[in-house]
Amino acid sequence: AKAAGKNRFLRFHPDMMTALVQRTEMEAGLQLAVTRGEISVAFQPIVSPRIGQTVQFEALARWDHNGERIPPSVFIPMAERSGLISEIGNEVMGLSLVQLAPWLREDPSRSLAVNVSGVQLQEPAFADGVLRLAAACGVGAYQLVLEVTESVFFDPGCGLIRQLSSLREAGVRVALDDFGTGYSSLGRLQDLPVDIVKIDRTFVSMVRTGQERLPILSSMINMAHSLGLTVTAEGVETAVQADYLTALDCDSLQGYLFSLPESGHRLERAGRQAEDA
Ligand code: C2E
Ligand code: CA
Ligand code: CA
Ligand code: CA
């Protein structure tokens, strides 16, 4: 029975061929995506409920390939596997700094968050490149936030630690993305070189009526605060969730309730309309 069970997975199915061809085609396409200008960035606002304003934008990579938008959940892991993540990551960093520089320069308390993968943080020239780019755009290092998932800390080489240290010494902040979904305990938070915690939307989605008791959520926020960290909640979709998180003293909120991720072009137009009004 064991042999038959194993064999089941070895039998070839025509769908596997189609999937394989599609993936190979996509990987070949991804190699040319940057030079072809197919990579763009969408920006999603992060709002401070205390100030009632957008204080930060998160940059999210977009890939338009053969008239189709491939989701980052597909092409980012593909880029990480095939060694293309640094090229794509640099493109995202460059595009988002250039597009948001005017908005950032207007107010030093505004910031830009960019997702970076562990592979990028291993590169010896990463920190220098980021700091040089920010300076060239007239953006302060303290206005930059790098979002990483806790997996980058599982087995951090000394290269990664060095890159993160020089960035943080220059004022760049590090956000721990998707907090709560990983394996490490709340207690491990104090050992990680991070400044901001982003509570994953699976926890935010537990708030439905606003009457529930959610000790996990309040513990995460209180623990982060007691360590001197700032807390952002992701995936806020309802006003009930926003009110609940604000009552728990969450520092900033992000989600479809406020805005979908939008192209820099559309943000600019909305900004001009707001100024004209
Ligand atoms: P993430 O960093 O956790 O980004 C948040 C994701 O949640 C985004 O998906 C965003 O569009 C989505 N989202 C925002 N608000 C809501 C909401 O209210 N409800 C729901 N259901 N979803 C919401 P997106 O843009 O598809 O990105 C998926 C993931 O791809 C990101 O998750 C991030 O891990 C990765 N990614 C995106 N851009 C980059 C990049 O430039 N570099 C790297 N390394 N990873 C990236
Ligand atoms: Ca993120
Ligand atoms: Ca996240
Ligand atoms: Ca995520």
UniProtKB/TrEMBL annotation:
Organism (species): Pseudarthrobacter psychrotolerans
Lineage of the organism: Bacteria, Bacillati, Actinomycetota, Actinomycetes, Micrococcales
One GO BP: regulation of DNA-templated transcription
Residues of the full protein shown: 425 to 701 of 713
Protein name: EAL domain-containing protein
Residue ranges occupied by any EAL domain in the UniProt entry: 23-275
